[in-house]
Amino acid sequence: MATFGSAGSGFPDGGGPGSSPLAVRLEAPARVPPGQVVRLTLKLKNTGAARLEQPLGGRPPHDIVVTRDGTEVWRWSKGRVVQDVLELKTLRPGEELAFDAEWDQRDEAGRPVPPGSYVVKGILRTDPPETLETKPRALVIGR
Fold it and tell me: Using one digit for the tens of pLDDT, what is the confidence trace for 21-77?
């Protein structure tokens, strides 16, 4: 498993020789009021100078996970019915793919979560068994 990307607003620069031309990043708010839908976007970007054919696999290839105190609270893919398909995406230099998700601040049992500090992480499954993860992002629910 590799961790790429940045918790900040931009993708990292392409790195040095031999580094991966892929960058993953999670866009998430730092703070939201209780009860508000949390909009999350996982982005994959080709930071290289050449066209890239990237296999994506899994059910689905992307996921977003919310934890609190190290315990999983919500997973975007949980309960979704999707096909397990290996898909090949072509990304031109600088091109990115975006995967959107919304979290209604409920746990996997459907109960509203309490205000407090949470951690959000994006996951992208590439040609199995490779997995790319974003750096964890802090998310505070509260006023």
Answer: 889 999 999 999 999 999 999 999 999 999 988 777 666 788 999 999 999 999 998
DSSP strand pairing (116-125 vs 62-68): antiparallel
User: Is position 11 within any domain?
Assistant: no
Q: H helices of 19-134, where?
A: none
11 by Cβ neighbours in 10 Å (0-12 / 13-18 / 19+) ranks as buried
Task: Give how far Cα 67 sits from Cα of 77, 120, 129, Å.
Answer: 14, 7, 23
| pTM, to two decimals | 0.79
Domain count within the chain: 1
The domain of 48 spans 22-141
Q: What is the CATH number of the domain that holds 75?
A: 2.60.40.2360
Amino acid residing at 8: G
User: What phi and psi values does residue 115 have, to the nearest 5 degrees?
Assistant: -60, 155
Q: Is residue 16 in a domain?
A: no
